[in-house]
From TrEMBL:
PROSITE patterns, alphabetized: MACRO (PS51154)
InterPro entries in UniProt: Macro_dom, Macro_dom-like
Residue ranges occupied by any Macro domain in the UniProt entry: 1-166
Annotated source species: Jiangella aurantiaca
Superkingdom per UniProt: Bacteria
SUPFAM superfamilies in the cross-refs: Macro domain-like
Name of the featured protein: O-acetyl-ADP-ribose deacetylase
């Protein structure tokens, strides 16, 4: 079972084998975490993502990390659900994002992976519910990944993830 930890910071600066991108289905970049990862990885990330698109909600695919600093070797792109009030299978789609991303990390041989808070920005997923799903899912997925780091951009998200972990 992977060790799960919560930190606050910039996911593009994490010292891990792979980082997860909260992407849109085009995999060409966007705002928030997606935009930050694309800026840090450089323009080849957009080209590599476009070649794999479209990616449906709940799925995950990987590209090289390009210009991200080592040891980051991979970017795992996952498309979270847009919140529609919780009546459109959003919880299972969000859990699938975390589960599929860990499975992709396993297939790449990654021993450490960092996740952002998927779907809690522009996609509107309630952060407290998303934190519980994130923690419960990464704890329950069988994996050879040794470290799963949940990276909060702000203090509120950090506190929610920490509470869910406890």
């Amino acid at each position: 079972m992977a060790r799960v930890e919560v930190v606050q910071g910039d996911i593009t600066r994490e010292d891990v084998d792979a980082i997860v991108n909260a992407a849109n289905s085009s995999l060409r970049g966007g705002g928030g975490v997606d935009g930050a990862i694309h800026r840090a990885a450089g323009p080849r990330l957009k080209e590599a993502g476009a070649a794999l698109a479209p990616c449906p909600p709940g799925e995950a695919v990987a590209t090289p990390a390009f210009d991200l600093d080592p040891p980051v070797r991979h970017v795992i792109h996952t498309v979270g659900p847009v919140w529609k009030g919780g009546t459109r299978d959003e919880a299972s789609l969000l859990a699938s994002c975390y589960r599929r991303s860990v499975e992709v990390a396993d297939s790449l041989g990654a021993r450490s992976v960092a996740f952002p808070a998927i779907s809690t920005g522009i996609y509107g997923y309630p952060p407290d519910q998303a934190a519980r799903i994130a923690v419960d899912t990464v704890r329950s997925v069988p994996t050879r990944v040794e470290l799963i780091r949940l990276v909060a951009f702000d203090r509120v998200t950090y506190d929610l993830l920490t509470a869910a972990l406890d």
